[in-house]
Amino acid sequence: MNQILIVDDEEKMRHLLAIILESRGYKVIQAADGVNAFDIINENAFDMVISDIKMPRMDGLELLEKMKANHITCPVVFITAFATIDSAVEAMRRGAADYITKPFEEDRILLTVERTLNFSRIISENRDLKQRLQKAEAGHEIIFKSQTMAAVMDMAGRVAKTDSAVLINGESGTGKELIARYIHRMSPRNEKRFVPVNCAAISSNLVESELFGHEKGAFTGADKKAEGKFEYASGGTIFLDEIGDLPLEAQAKLLRALQEKRIQRVGGNDEVPVDVRVICATNKNLSQQVEKEDFRQDLLFRINVFPIQPPPLRDRMEDVEILFDYFLKKLGAARSVKLDKSGLNALKSYLWPGNVRELANAAERAVILAGDKGQITGDTLSFLNSGQTRDCVPIPADEYKLPRTGIILEEFENNLVRQALEMSENNQTLASKLLGITRSKFRVLMKQYKENRKTGRA
After folding, report:
1. Are 26 and 4 in contact (CB under 8 A)?
2. Which domains does the chain possess?
3. How far, in Å, CA of 428 to CA of 445, rounded?
4. How many alpha carbons fall within 13 Å on the CB side of residue 393?
5. Which of 169, 186, 394, 448 is packed most tightly, with the most Cβ within 10 A?
6. 99 vs 28, 55, 102, 116, CA distance in Å?
7. What is the pLDDT along the chain (458 residues), one digit of tens a residue?
C-alpha cells in the first residue's frame, strides 16, 4: 500500500484530499505545516508528498529544499490557490514532481498521484539498483600485501588519471579485469560505463558488429540498427579482454577506431565519433603473435602505451593467506571455519596454475569438505596434491653456463638454501620443494649453510 503525506495549513483541504485518496486504497498521513511535515518524514517512509506552497512557519518550497538537503528522494507535488506561472516554474525548477492549482477536480488529483507514484517507483528501483551495483563493486576488491602487487597497483593508480591505452598482460586468473575495473574506478570517467568485451567469446563473423554496431539490413537477421560496444561505452571505458584472439580483419578496424576516434557500423557509410578509454588484456605473448603474423604490429604499438603485468600467484605467495581468508569471508564461513598451520603449508606448497581464481575455488571446496570440523587442515586440502605442487622445475640446459673460472659449489648451494628459505618464509617443507629435494636432504644443506654462516663463509 502506497503511503502519502498531505501537508496543508487548511484542515478542510487536508481532510478532503485524505477522503479522495483513502477511497482509492492509499494510506494517508496529515501534517499542518512544513515543520510538522519534516518531523514526520524523518520518522516515516513515504511514496510521495502533496504539499501546499503558502504555509506558516515553513512553506512548501522550504520543505522541498530541506528534504533535498537531507537526501530524502520522495517526490513532491505542490497544490496551491496562488497559481501563477512564476510560482509554477520556480517549484519545478527546485525539483517538484508536479503542480496543481485549487480548486481542483478529483480525476486530476488521482491522475497526478498515479503518475507521481510511478515516478517514485522508478526512483526506488534506481536506488536499489545502485545499492546492488555498489555491493557488486565491493566484490571487485583487489586483496594483497606483497610488494610485487603493491607496485602493480601503484602503476594502475598512476595511469588511471590519464586517458592512455593500457595493456594488461598476465596469466589466466591473475585479476586482469579487476585491475581494469580499478583503473576505470580511479579515473575521471568513473561516472560513466565500464564495458567488458571478451574477444575470444565472439564469433569471428560477428565481432565487428559486436564492437562497432550495424545498420538495418547489413546482414541476415539485422532487422534493425544496433549500436556496438564502442558506442555503448561512450564517455567511459571499454575493456577488450583476450585481445590476442581478435581476428586480423577486426584488428585493422580496431586500429582505425583507436587512431581516428571514429567507428563505422557494419553496412553503414557514416563515421560515428566515439569517446572511450581503451584497456586491453591478454594471456598471450603478443610480440610472438606479431612474429607469427597473427597480430598486427601497429595495433600492438597503439594498445601497448602503458603495459601492466600482474604477477602469478606463485610469485606473490605472501598474499595466499589473506586471499584465502577473504574468500572464506565471502563464503560466509570465516566464523565457523579456520585455516590451521598444516592447511596454510598445503596452500603455500601448491603452484596455483589457475592463480587467484583457482584459490577461490579451492576455498569453496575446502569449506564443503571441512563440514562441521571447524578447521581446514592439510588433509582437507589434500585434493591439491593431484595438481601441480612445488616440485623441481627443470632448468633448460642453456639457461645456466658454467664460467671458465669455475665456481665454489658449496657457496652456490648455500646461496640457493638462503633464497629458498626467504621465499618460503623459513618453511623447510616448502623450501625443500622449491629446490626439488627431500626434506632430509634439505636439512643436510641447511646444516651446512648454518655452519658456514658461523664461520663467515656464507
Report:
1. yes
2. 3-135 (3.40.50.2300), 147-308 (3.40.50.300), 316-386 (1.10.8.60), 393-458 (1.10.10)
3. 11
4. 6
5. 169
6. 19, 16, 10, 11
7. 789 999 999 999 999 999 999 998 899 999 999 999 999 998 888 889 999 888 888 988 899 999 988 888 889 998 877 656 667 677 788 888 888 877 778 888 899 899 888 877 777 776 666 555 554 454 457 899 899 999 999 999 999 999 999 999 999 999 999 999 999 999 999 989 999 999 999 887 888 899 999 888 888 777 788 889 999 999 999 999 999 999 998 999 999 999 999 998 888 888 889 999 999 999 999 999 999 999 999 999 999 999 999 999 988 999 999 999 999 998 888 778 999 999 999 998 888 989 999 999 999 999 999 988 889 999 999 998 755 554 444 455 455 677 777 778 888 888 888 888 887 777 777 777 778 787 778 888 888 888 877 776 55
* Residue that has been written with the C-alpha cell 586482469 in this structure: 176
Cell for 139?
566484490
* Phi and psi angles of residue 398, each rounded to the nearest 5 degrees, phi first: -95, 5
Residue 434, amino acid: L
CA-CA-CA-CA torsion for 219, 221, 223, 225, nearest 10 degrees? -60
Cell of 315: 610469485
CA distance linking residue 47 with residue 124, whole number of Å: 9
Residue with cell string 520522495: 74
Question: What grid cell was written down for 207?
Answer: 565481432
The amino acid occupying position 118 is N
Q: How many residues does the chain have?
A: 458
Q: Which residues of 57-93 are buried (b: 16+ CB within 10 A; e: fewer)?
A: ebbbbebbebbeeeebebbbbbbbeeeeeebbeebee
Contact 421, 431 (CB under 8 A): yes
Looking at 331-354, list the stretches that DSSP marks H as alpha helix, in order from N- to C-terminal side: 341-348
Q: What is the amino acid identity at position 35? A: V
C-alpha cell at 196: 567488458
- HSE-CB at 26 with a 13 A cutoff on CA atoms is 25
Distances (CA, A) of 203 to 40, 209, 236, 397: 58, 10, 25, 42
Kindly report the number of other CB atoms within 10 A of residue 1's CB atom. Answer: 6
Q: How many CB atoms lie within 10 A of CB 155?
A: 17
Q: What are the cell numbers at 252?
A: 585493422
